[in-house]
Here is the input.
Amino acid sequence: MNALRIGLTGGIGSGKSTVAKMLVDCGAVLVDTDAIAHALTAPDGAALPQLSNEFGADIVGADGAMDRDRMRAVVFGDSSAKRRLEGILHPMIGEEALRQASAAGDKPVIFDVPLLAASSHWRQRVARVLVVDCLESTQVQRVMHRSGWSEAQVQRVIDQQSTRALLRSIADAVIFNDGISPSTLQAEVSALWQSWRSTLRGSAAGL
Here is the structure.
């Protein structure tokens, strides 16, 4: 491993994206697997032909992108649909993520991976795992506020994700992003970054 690779994960509404931006400000290159997934399922996205074959042409909306609401409904209504969807998307996401990381050269890379806890190969690709955590009630309120979803809709998403206990169990570090100010969060992220730069300098080029 020629450069520091960090896996970043956390449940919906935990503030993971905010922490990712802070790490970029510290000098890291962000590889956002959610953004990759969106690109793969955007109009003319590379995953659309396989998705259409697997789930039907109506999975593509009028704008030419995957209809995410419809796909979400299909996945929630059929447990096998989630496995089939992941079977199409995950290999493509992984390939593009590694391409982006390779392009970063010796710069430190943050892999933002919501499903990191459920993917053993991701743990093997990174030197450290950072989990952003908060109370489930906080997750619900944050997501309702930003998305307009109902409490039941948010809870269904949370129930599909890895539990807080599982996420914390795989972590090398946990940032508890609940009841703290943005400046305090920034200070915690910066302190952790400096600590990891120090302890991993010997094995991570470019730091």
Remarks:
- The mean pLDDT is 91.
